[in-house]
């Protein structure tokens, strides 16, 4: 070597030494700080050295291997696939330069295994998995016997074979996975805390070994969270094989501990959280417990929040989170959950590169969400998107992918939805083809097979309903039967499978006149209805069929009563306290007819007492729940002060949680969404605490029926001392009135044979049309008007049955009082104004009785039972007028109305306060509602049928929402006069939930409410209010001094309306519309 070459060589070696020292320093710092800048520095130093290192340099393989390891470590932090590609390239080059007997060959081989495995897990490319298995097997072969790392390497190879089996279903891969798993167990050293076993033939032994090893591991062992997570995976794996839910609970427990021990910001935490979410989701799918789904969403959100934006796992975690929201939407029907599912799904797809391993799954999840939104909204664009996403997912899935059946099933679902919309038989044929293929590709024993079979049965059932081809019905029956057979006992889907088989079997019985199949179908509906597991909605669907069909085919059988008992009881579970009030109303839409049908069947079987019980239990459910949460606890407190206090505290918190108006929006920050989910989980926990407290209380002798639905015998214990409560049930089968009065231990049943549901709907529509045109429609001699029809077909037959006669004493109010409790479309009709108002033929309910309304019998009897004397300190009247609320038309008459009442109140010596316009803030109004027993609100009102708690009164300075009023402790509330428009107008979809302001004020604590069914004239309202209060003051108790008592408010309103009718002088359409709107609710 010449002098110049020697100098060059020495200079190169100096540079190499300096690069190596820099790399070592950065590596050491990285181990201490975990800072990306240090790993970047290490990689830069190694690359700098390699650029000047000759190909023949003896240390070249070492440098290449170290570079590969450093790039791999950076990939673990960033998820950058380019680093992984370069790591593999460097590792492969090192292997090519290496000798077969090199001491480092086992390490380098194992490093390449890890890199190929990571790339497979990121891309899903089976070629990478094949390479990982190849290098993993070679690393095991090269490892010296007795090496401490050999068990973990053997176990990893087993896990790789398991992954390939999951993708391909090749039984040889499963055999290899088990073989390597067994060898890993055998190689594990006693007391080794790093037991890495994942696959065993004897899982019980494996779990025992891991648990024993973990007991020896110190609590501060940095690897402890990993092994806890692995142990959780073992339990999860055993659950998937054996189906024991307790294994899932154990898995969750261990992984929760792993999460607690993992420092915030640790690279493995998002993965551990993701695994925990999967385990909660699996338990939800098995048991149907919404608390598990809420936990899964919570940890899923946290996993997404902790995953860097450029990490390759972010699309997968976003898609998983979207799928969780979709599952909750399917259970609750909350559209905000569906919006979240679509939002997260779209983000996942947008962030997934074309070859990302989870892109087909993300597309599939998004397809499911879009088809569900189509089914809710009918927007065909959503259906088109769904089909496009589902078909693309199938196209992108590798041949032999174990997830392919899931994707095929989704395509089938999209085609089925299009068939339902279009009726095109080609669509249902396509759907059947795709789901049949999903079934064919799913091995026996797979947990998804019952679902695919169930869906296939539904598809054949749908085609039969269109074509009436008995072959399709036979297929539907066969697939439904097999799906049920494969569904394990205790599974959340079991009621649904029984319901589906019952439907197919019932259809078969009707087509073939098969009485045996009919009885068998009813037995399946019954079994589903009384199941202890499964979503309440699925059980309710079965119970409705059981009850309805039992009565249809066996009309004299009392078994129908048992069936309807089960169905009505399930309604309260469908709209349970774990949901917000808004969600409960969503759940109740479409269920209004159930208690009415049940009552009609009870009346047909001469059981009006049972009819009344069901109407009470199944109607006005949400207001009833609120009443239960506010029930007096005096008796319980006398038994146990602590238990009563617990009940009171949980009830208050549960009421607040249910009244929340907060809903998630897709444009919210993730941190805001996490906060909302925390509140939702707290709500679920409160509902469980409430359930547990009720169980505790009911175990106490004497409290067995605490807050249970009241039997008839309890309902009649606290009837008003005089007058009648008349419940009118309207159903397509029949119409009946049930009258109650104090001192009578049996209800008076009054069939209404000339009235019908069809007439009730017609009268309601006629009245709506008349109101729109501001006049009653013309009535010919042969055409019965709304008010006349109500009189002839409903009111007069009831009055006759009650022996109530006309009471027309001049200037006097009738002495008989009736509280009307109508159902269905009759709730929207003015029973209190029924009569014949023609010039030649006059007769009116106004001359017979004083009318009030009550949403339910219990709403009235609770007031009687909890009757209390007026607090003389608070007794008085608060008045406010709001003539110019923003966005509403001026109502100048409200100022005159309130001033006149205020002046008259002062003259009568009553305690009164008046605030007008801007002087009334929302806060000041609420203070006065607490300080005064009676309130008069002269203003505009706005009803929100979708969310009744957002119904409001419009003030100059904001809105007074019903939700805010209800949250106040209005313990002295007596009378509320709502001199506002449409304060007792209901909602057709919730006709039996009394979703109007008048009922809301009753729920808030007021004993009696004056409201209006439609807009009232600014001209007449002040006069009606004046006459109303004058009557109250004239007939008040002189001993009350400056107090104010609303006890006679129903009589006062009757008097005021009578005075208005005298001033109007006739019964013209305009005159009728002026006085009919006024109604009285409550005691």
From TrEMBL:
Keywords: TPR repeat. The keyword Metal-binding does not apply. GO terms for cellular component: anaphase-promoting complex. InterPro entries: CHAT_dom, TPR-like_helical_dom_sf. Residues 787-1082 form the CHAT domain. It comes from the Eukaryota. Belongs to the APC3/CDC27 family. This is CHAT domain-containing protein.
């Amino acid at each position: 070597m010449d002098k110049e070459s020697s100098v060059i060589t020495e200079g190169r070696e100096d540079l190499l030494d300096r690069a190596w020292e820099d790399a070592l320093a950065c590596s050491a710092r990285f181990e201490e700080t975990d800072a990306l800048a240090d790993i970047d520095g290490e990689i830069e130093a190694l690359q700098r050295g390699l650029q000047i290192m000759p190909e023949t340099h003896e240390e070249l393989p070492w440098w290449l291997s170290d570079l590969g390891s450093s790039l791999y470590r950076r990939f673990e932090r960033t998820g950058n696939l380019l680093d992984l590609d370069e790591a593999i390239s460097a590792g492969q080059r090192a292997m090519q330069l290496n000798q077969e007997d090199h001491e480092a060959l086992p390490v380098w081989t194992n490093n390449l295994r890890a890199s190929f495995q990571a790339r497979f897990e990121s891309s899903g490319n089976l070629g990478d998995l094949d390479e990982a298995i190849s290098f993993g097997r070679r690393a095991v072969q090269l490892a010296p016997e007795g090496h401490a790392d050999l068990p973990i390497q053997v176990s990893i190879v087993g896990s790789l074979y398991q992954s390939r089996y999951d993708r391909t279903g090749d039984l040889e891969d499963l055999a290899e996975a088990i073989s390597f798993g067994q060898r890993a167990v055998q190689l594990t050293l006693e007391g080794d805390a790093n037991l890495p076993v994942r696959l065993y033939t004897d899982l019980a032994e494996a779990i025992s070994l891991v648990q024993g090893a973990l007991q020896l591991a110190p609590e501060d062992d940095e690897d402890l969270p990993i092994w806890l997570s692995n142990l959780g995976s073992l339990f999860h794996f055993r659950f998937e094989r054996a189906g024991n839910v307790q294994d899932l609970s154990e898995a969750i427990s261990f992984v929760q501990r792993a999460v607690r021990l993992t420092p915030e910001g640790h690279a493995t935490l998002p993965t551990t959280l993701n695994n925990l979410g999967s385990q909660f989701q699996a338990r939800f799918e098995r048991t149907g417990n919404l608390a598990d789904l809420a936990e899964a969403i919570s940890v899923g959100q946290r996993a997404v929040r902790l995953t860097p934006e450029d990490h390759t796992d972010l699309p997968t975690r976003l898609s998983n989170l979207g799928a969780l929201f979709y599952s909750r939407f399917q259970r609750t029907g909350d559209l905000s959950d569906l919006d979240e599912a679509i939002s997260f799904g779209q983000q996942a797809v947008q962030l997934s590169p074309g070859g990302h391993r989870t892109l087909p799954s993300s597309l599939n999840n998004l397809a499911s969400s879009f088809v569900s939104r189509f089914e809710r909204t009918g927007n065909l664009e959503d259906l088109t998107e769904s089909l496009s996403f589902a078909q693309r997912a199938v196209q992108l899935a590798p041949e032999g992918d174990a997830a392919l059946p899931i994707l095929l099933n989704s395509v089938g679902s999209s085609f089925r939805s299009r068939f339902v919309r279009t009726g095109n038989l080609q669509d249902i044929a396509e759907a059947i083809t795709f789901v049949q293929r999903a079934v064919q590709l799913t091995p026996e024993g797979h947990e998804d097979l019952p679902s695919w079979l169930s869906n296939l049965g539904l598809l054949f059932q749908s085609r039969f309903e269109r074509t009436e081809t008995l072959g399709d019905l036979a297929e539907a029956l066969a697939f439904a039967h097999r799906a049920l057979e494969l569904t394990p006992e205790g599974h959340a889907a079991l009621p649904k499978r029984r319901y589906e088989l019952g439907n197919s079997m019932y259809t078969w019985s009707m087509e073939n006149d098969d009485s045996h199949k009919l009885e068998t179908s009813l037995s399946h509906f019954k079994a589903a209805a009384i199941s202890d597991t499964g979503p309440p909605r699925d059980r309710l669907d079965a119970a409705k069929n059981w009850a309805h069909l039992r009565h249809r085919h066996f009309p004299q059988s009392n078994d129908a009563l048992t069936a309807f008992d089960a169905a009505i009881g399930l309604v309260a579970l469908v709209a349970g306290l774990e949901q917000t009030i808004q969600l409960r109303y969503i759940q109740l839409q479409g269920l209004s007819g159930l208690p009415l049908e049940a009552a009609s069947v009870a009346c047909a079987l001469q059981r009006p007492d049972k009819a009344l019980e069901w109407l009470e239990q199944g109607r006005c459910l949400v207001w009833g729940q609120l009443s239960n949460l506010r029930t007096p606890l005096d008796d319980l407190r006398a038994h146990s002060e602590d238990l009563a206090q617990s009940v009171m505290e949980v009830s208050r918190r549960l009421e607040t949680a249910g009244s929340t108006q907060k809903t998630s929006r897709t444009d919210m920050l993730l941190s805001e969404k996490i906060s909302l989910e925390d509140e939702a989980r707290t709500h679920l926990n409160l509902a469980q605490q409430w359930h547990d407290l009720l169980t505790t209380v009911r175990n106490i002798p004497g409290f067995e029926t605490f807050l249970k639905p009241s039997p008839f015998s309890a309902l009649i214990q606290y009837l008003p001392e005089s007058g009648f409560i008349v419940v009118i049930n309207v159903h397509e089968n029949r119409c009946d009135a049930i009258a109650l009065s104090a001192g009578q231990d049996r209800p008076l049943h009054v069939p209404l044979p000339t009235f019908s549901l069809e007439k009730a709907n017609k009268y309601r529509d006629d009245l709506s049309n008349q109101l729109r045109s501001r006049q009653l429609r013309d009535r010919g001699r042969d055409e019965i008007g709304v008010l006349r029809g109500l009189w002839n077909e409903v009111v007069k037959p009831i009055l006759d049955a009650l022996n109530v006669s006309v009471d027309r004493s001049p200037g006097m109010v009738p002495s008989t009082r009736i509280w009307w409790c109508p159902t269905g479309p009759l709730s929207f009709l003015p029973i209190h104004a029924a009569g014949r108002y023609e010039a030649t033929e006059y007769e009116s309910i106004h001359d017979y009785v004083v009318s009030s309304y009550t949403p339910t019998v219990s709403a009235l009897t609770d007031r009687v039972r909890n009757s209390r004397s007026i607090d003389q300190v608070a007794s008085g009247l608060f008045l406010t007028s709001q003539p110019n609320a923003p966005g509403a038309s001026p109502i100048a008459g409200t100022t005159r109305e309130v001033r006149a009442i205020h002046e008259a109140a002062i003259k009568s010596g009553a305690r009164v306060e008046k605030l007008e316009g801007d002087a009334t803030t929302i806060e000041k109004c609420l203070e006065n509602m607490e300080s005064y027993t009676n309130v008069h609100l002269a203003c505009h009102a706005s009803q929100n049928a979708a969310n009744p708690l957002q119904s409001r009164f419009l003030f100059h300075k904001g809105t007074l929402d019903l939700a805010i009023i209800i949250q106040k402790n209005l313990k002295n509330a007596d009378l509320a006069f709502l001199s506002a428009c449409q304060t007792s107008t209901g909602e057709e979809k919730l006709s039996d939930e009394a979703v109007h302001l008048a009922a809301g004020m009753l729920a808030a604590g007021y004993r009696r409410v004056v409201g209006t069914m439609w807009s009232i004239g600014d001209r007449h309202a002040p006069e009606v209010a004046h006459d109303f209060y004058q009557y109250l003051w004239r007939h008040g108790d002189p001993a009350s001094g400056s107090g104010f008592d609303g006890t006679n408010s129903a009589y006062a309103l009757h008097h005021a309306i009578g005075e208005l009718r005298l001033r109007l002088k006739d019964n013209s359409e305009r005159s009728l519309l002026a006085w009919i709107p006024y109604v009285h609710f409550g005691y």
